[in-house]
Amino acid sequence: MLGWALTFLIVALIAAALGFGGIAGAAVGIAKIIFFVAIVLFVLSLLFGGFRRRSI
After folding, report:
1. Which long-range contacts (CB under 8 A, 24 or more apart) does 38-42 make?
2. Degrees (nearest 5) of the Cα angle 3, 36, 47?
3. Which site in 35, 44, 48, 55 is 20 to 30 Å from 18, CA atoms measured?
4. Burial of 27 by CB count in 10 Å (0-12 exposed, 13-18 middle, 19+ buried)?
């Protein structure tokens, strides 16, 4: 998921450099959403992975 966020960020930077403000803003918004979802999933993975190892 972080790869997708980075891809959208690069698309946003290129679009902004070429003057496409609307596309750049949309790509940045999508990149932010994907980034925060990836961070939340990562934290949940760490928490549930830690609980499973302790119980065994």
Report:
1. 38/1, 38/2, 38/5, 41/1
2. 100
3. 35
4. buried
